[in-house]
Please model this.
Amino acid sequence: MHVRALQHLLEGKDSLALNVGTGSGSSVREVITAVEKVSGLKVPARESARRAGDPPELVSDPGAAYKALGWQARYSDLHTIVDSAVRWHRRHG
Model:
């Protein structure tokens, strides 16, 4: 993504603000469960009611990133995304 974005700018094209993601959403609980399963660690969490103004669902639409840069997410399932992130953090943390 970063390389494609730099190429875009070096070609003299306008700067863009783009959503990046898979186009499918996951709940906070699903993410916590995936992190715990992949890492083997307990994630400290406190449940509370949705805050006023919070949307019931918020999912990225990466269509503009694909159209402008030809970019699409390499990993699309939550387990793979979390596994990749945990491995990166363990190597670089």
About this structure: The two ends are 22 Å apart (CA to CA).
